[in-house]
Design brief:
alpha/beta; 3-stranded mixed β-sheet; 18% strand; Rossmann fold
Length: 314
Amino acid sequence: MANVMVTGARGRIGKEVVDKLIEKKHQVFAVDNQFSPRADDEYFHYTSCDMNESDTITDILEKNKIDTVVYISFTCDNDLESTVADSEIKHSKFVDKYIYAAAAKAKVKNFILTSTTQIYGIQKGRDPIRESSAEKGTTYYSDLKMYSEKMLLKAFKKADSVPVIARLAPIYTPTFEDNLKEHVFDRKTNSAYIYGEGNYYFSFCSVYNYVDFIMGIVNIPNGRYEGLYNICDKEKISAKQLLEFGAESFRIGTPEVRIPPKIVSYNKSRARNDYNYFDPEAALANWTYDTTKAQRISTFRWGLKNTMEMRDKL
C-alpha cells in the first residue's frame, strides 16, 4: 500500500480522492484549511493548515515517506471561488515553488498536479485536442495553472520524482452541476438557449474518472507515466442532452432557440477572471479532447448517467 498526500482534501474533488484511497487501504495524509469531519484512524491522517504554512507541509513530506502527492489545491472546481484574483495567483506561485522543491527532496515517487483544459483555449479545426495542441488559454485561471505546470516540470527535471499533469475538462459530480449548466445558460439574458437542434457537443469530466486516473498512477509499481494527460469522459454530451438533463436537475426552463453564429467569437474580457463563465458565442467551438494517452492508465468508465445514479448512494 502507498503513502499518499492529498492537498485540497476537503474540496469536492479532494473528498472523493481521499475516500477512494482509504477504501483501497492506502495511507492518506490529507491537508486542507477546513475542519475535517472524519477522525484520524489507521488509514487517515489529517492536517488542518493553509498551504502557505510551508514548514508544516514540508514536515509531512519529510517524515512520512510519501509515495505520491495529489496536488488539488488552487483548483476552481475544488476550493477556489469562480473569480480568480491576483491574490490567488500569488498564493499559488508561492506554494508551487516550495512544495515542488520539498517533494523532490523527499523523493516522492509521483507528483500529480490537477490542471485544466482551459489552457488550450479555443482551437481551430474539428480534430480532437491533444496534449501537443497549442496552448491558447486567455484566463487568469489558465495562467495560474500554466505557471504551475512549467514550474513542476522544471523542478523535477533532474529529480527521481515523476511529474504527472492532469488537464481536466470541466468537472461535475452527483451534487455539483454548475459546469454543465453554464454551457446551455446565458447569464446575460438569464435564460437557457440552444443553437438549432442542439446537435453540437461538449467534453466534461466526471469526478470519478479523475479519481480512477489518480488510483491508476498510485497503483502502478515503479511506473514512469510522466507528462501531460487530458482527463475527460469518453462520451461527449450534446447541448440537447444537457437541456434534457437540466430541465429536471437544475430547472433552467424552456430554452431560447438561436441561429448558429457564422463565426465563433469569444468575450475574452468577461471570461478573463471568471472561471465559470462560458460565452454562448463560443458554444460551437471545438470542445473535444483526446484521452488516448490517459486511457493507458484508466478506463474512463464514468459518464453523466452513472455518475448521477450515485446520488442515491450519497
